[in-house]
Amino acid sequence: MWRSCEGIGLSESDTREAIAAYLVRNPGLSLVATDEAGVVVGAILGGHDGRRGYLHHLAVAPAHRGRGLGRSLVDATLGCLRRLGIQKCNIFLYADNAAGRAFWLREGWVPREDLVVVQKALR
Predict the structure, then answer these.
(1) How far is CA 22 from CA 13, 62, 122, in A?
(2) How much is the pTM?
(3) Per-residue pLDDT of the chain (123 residues; tens, 9 = 90+)
(4) Do residues 29 and 80 lie in contact, with contact meaning Cβ atoms separated by under 8 Å?
(5) Any idea where the domains of the chain sit in the sequence?
(6) CB 70 within 8 A of CB 106
(7) Disulfide engineering: 48 pairs with which of 20, 53, 65, 77, CB 3.0-4.6 Å?
(8) What number does CATH give the domain 2-106?
């Protein structure tokens, strides 16, 4: 489903094996939503490092948007993080993802203009 949603960037960190390892490290924090036929129509990866929570790859199939499904996935994952004692949560958003940015801002998330993400590949 992620491949069919704009604004989702997949990389070598998103192989089946890498996602499986992430799920093992962060049990109960990633969710999927299905329709009546059992087809996945929404998903979110959630995790934490013991200090901060992280949400990755929130996606809702276009035909199922505007019904609160994304908000429900986010709220459920944030609730799980709160129960684990995590007090803040971060997301990474592509700068050109206007629809995603609008969603997150509507949901009360605040951009941090004082931070820059830097990254180094460890291959």
Answers:
(1) 10, 26, 17
(2) 0.91
(3) 888 888 888 888 899 999 999 999 999 999 999 999 999 999 999 999 999 999 999 999 999 999 999 999 999 999 999 999 999 999 999 999 999 999 999 999 999 999 999 999 888
(4) yes
(5) 2-106
(6) no
(7) 53
(8) 3.40.630.30
